[in-house]
Specification:
The chain has 2 domains: 3-215, Endonuclease III, domain 1; 231-344, Nucleoside Triphosphate Pyrophosphohydrolase (Alpha-Beta Complex). It has 349 residues and is α+β, with helices and mostly antiparallel strands. The chain has helices spanning 3-20, 32-41, 47-60, 64-69, 72-79, 86-102, 110-114, 121-132, 141-151, 160-173, 179-192, 211-215, 320-325, and strands spanning 240-242, 245-250, 274-277, 281-286, 289-294, 302-306, 314-318, 336-340, 345-348. α9 (141-151) crosses α10 (160-173). The structure holds a DNA duplex (11 and 11 nucleotides).
DNA sequence: AAGACGGGGTT
DNA sequence: AACCCAGTCTT
């Protein structure tokens, strides 16, 4: 593209944005806090899904001080149903960090934002360009598609050299004024016109500048994402009820994953488990899986499973109140005995 | 570079 | 079931 066509592109796109943009709750303010919260919620999450959560969240936590002062559990409760709960933990931790290190200010300073948990290059650019009109690029699901088609790039913008290219391209097209609006306009175009399948090129304000449109390559650019290799993980979960409590299984806890719990509202016997309860040892057999549960304390019991593969599981006893307050929504009556995220294949007990 | 995030919604 | 979504972090 020539410098002239770059200018035409920016002008036409911004004019279209002024005309066609949706009224969204986070477009009513330049408050960096409100923009930040929206960007975190919008990660891998559709606009329609976010809106009610966003409005509720800001009523409870209207500013970074309110968020930092809240219990993590209160934050997670408001996040329940939105998914990717790590985002909420990071957001909360980052708010506390800003109180500590920046006296609660959300500055026009990329290095401060880059140091916050849960803030990557996208959120940094999105917040600073919208709140302060700072000249920083963004790349996300919409813009990588718009840019690839605009320049007719055959690279896969999601990885390797294509990823480098698309960030470069995002920087190249950036105007010097109205940077925040421009970044929003790129995403809005991707969401409303330059869609993944069957884009509305006849309605596109920048079709004259678009290489893909010129050559009719909209359907082939960007190339489809690499198919994920299917791997089947063998997992076995377990629940045992005793004295009004429920034993929930979890995968091996890691620093990142923490303790995610499963509920299983049935007795072991009802699902074909053999249970032997001794004074210090509980043995459970189900299929090829055998748990040996060491009873270490009356309030908490850890278990170790013996598997064909080399991972284990562990569990804790929870009260009904603790269970109810846990922020993860779990389908009642469903538990995956064998489960694979990538293949989404599982067998339900 | 690859995978988790035990997400959620649409087609 | 496949595909998509205003990504980030860990390994």
């Amino acid at each position: 593209m020539t410098p002239e066509s770059h200018r035409a592109f920016r002008r036409k796109l911004l004019a279209w944005f002024d005309r066609a943009k949706r009224d969204l709750p986070w477009r009513t303010s330049r408050d960096p806090y409100r923009i930040w919260v929206s960007e975190v919620m919008l990660q891998q999450t559709t606009v329609a899904a976010v809106i009610p959560f966003y409005e509720r969240f800001l009523v409870s936590f209207p500013n970074v001080h309110a968020l930092a002062a809240a219990d993590e559990q209160a934050v997670l409760n408001l996040w329940q149903g939105l998914g990717y709960y790590r985002r909420a933990r990071h957001l909360h931790a980052a708010a506390k960090q800003l109180i500590h290190e920046q006296a609660g200010e959300l500055p026009n300073d990329p290095s401060v934002w880059a140091a916050l948990p849960g803030v990557g290059r996208y959120i940094l650019g999105a917040v600073l360009s919208q709140a302060f009109d700072r000249r920083l690029p963004i790349v996300e699901a919409n813009t990588l598609r718009v840019l690839s088609r605009l320049f007719g790039s055959r690279l896969d913008p999601r990885e390797g050299a294509g990823k480098v290219w698309v960030w470069e391209a995002a920087e190249t097209v950036l105007p010097h004024k109205r940077v925040g609006d421009f970044n929003q306009a790129m995403m809005e175009l991707g969401a409303l016109v330059c869609t993944p399948v069957a884009p509305n090129c006849e309605l596109c304000p920048v079709r004259r500048e678009c290489v893909a449109n010129q050559f009719g390559l909209q359907a082939e650019i960007p190339p489809p994402a690499k198919k994920k290799v299917l791997t089947t993980a063998q997992e076995t979960a377990l629940l045992i009820q005793r004295e009004g409590r429920v034993l929930l299984c979890q995968r091996p806890p890691t620093a990142e994953r923490g303790a995610m719990l499963w509920e299983f509202p049935a007795t072991a016997e009802s699902v074909g488990m053999t249970v032997e309860l001794g004074p210090e040892l509980l043995t459970v057999q189900h299929g090829v899986t055998r748990f040996r549960i060491v009873l270490e304390a009356s309030e908490a019991v850890w278990l170790r499973g013996e598997f064909a593969s080399d991972f284990y599981t562990a569990g804790v006893w929870l009260t009904a109140e603790e269970l109810a307050s846990y922020p993860m929504s779990i389908p009642q009556g469903k538990l995956r005995a064998e489960w694979s995220k990538t293949s989404r294949q599982g067998r339900l007990w």
